[in-house]
Amino acid sequence: MAKYHETPIDRTFFALADPTRRQVLERLKSEPGLSISELAQPLPIKMPGLMKHLAVLSDAGLISRTKAGRVVTVSLAARPLSEAADWLHHFEAFWNVSLDRLAALVEEEGEA
Amino acid sequence: MAKYHETPIDRTFFALADPTRRQVLERLKSEPGLSISELAQPLPIKMPGLMKHLAVLSDAGLISRTKAGRVVTVSLAARPLSEAADWLHHFEAFWNVSLDRLAALVEEEGEA
DNA sequence: TGAAAACTTTGCTATATGGCGAAGTATCAT
DNA sequence: ATGATACTTCGCCATATAGCAAAGTTTTCA
């Protein structure tokens, strides 16, 4: 098979495909500058599990770490999110079309 | 571990995390009503591989199939895409902030 | 009827993911 | 120097993903 998540956008969408990781991003949005322990505290998983999720988020460029003493502060990087949004954006015209119209289109095509 | 892609939004982001699947969606956007063979034609993978990708897209609700004789026509379903875009949307304010301002924030937090 | 076409399913393989406990590395406080 | 704190890495496991060839199904055409 091809490489698993080769491009940046692959890594971004993959990173977003997990509720724990999305929760981390949302938490960092509302409470910037949390440490890794603080992020871990409400989560139902152990530290090594969180470390793996943070590695996925780092690989996607969605977070960056800053070490101060023994505390690692995590911050959100918005760029990949905006790139993912851009990709979705060029479908916007499509999802604004009513479902009725879509159904009509499908039937039309079915006859061809 | 928790279930792999339990929620609709998990499945949507996961489906988007692969270039073949994104290519299928883009192709369906510009050429609605393609059959599975037509979708397969430009792709560097065999039919069983495409079938798996289509299954992932179906599970995410991103496509639907319509069978006419032996030909299966695939059409794009926009709803999950718009929901994914909505999730990203609530980070928009964040990525509109300049990177300079972000850097400042990080330093500020570093001192606390 | 018989064969081709279009799709589907069935194994099979290799690699990735997501979790854990345990052990390791810094850093800070006593 | 000792020990605690904060994070990191290591092995290990179970399951998922992504690919293929080959065999199976349904529909169409000769």
UniProtKB/TrEMBL annotation, chains A, B:
InterPro entries, per the entry: ArsR-like_HTH (IPR011991), HTH_ArsR_DNA-bd_dom (IPR001845), WH-like_DNA-bd_sf (IPR036388), WH_DNA-bd_sf (IPR036390)
SMART domains: HTH_ARSR
SUPFAM superfamilies: Winged helix' DNA-binding domain
Entry protein name: Metalloregulator ArsR/SmtB family transcription factor
Pfam families, A to Z: HTH_20
Organism: Chelativorans salis
Domain HTH arsR-type: 1-95
